[in-house]
Amino acid sequence: MGDGGPVELATVEAFLDAFAVMDFDTALALLAQDVEYTNVPIGTVRGHAGVRQVLEPFFAPIHENEFVHLRQAATGPVVFVERLDRHRLDHGWRELPVNSVFEVHDGVITVWRDYFDLATAAKIHDPDAS
Question: Which CATH entry fits the domain spanning 6-123: 3.50.50.60, 3.90.550.10, 3.40.50.300, 3.10.450.50?
Answer without folding.
Answer: 3.10.450.50
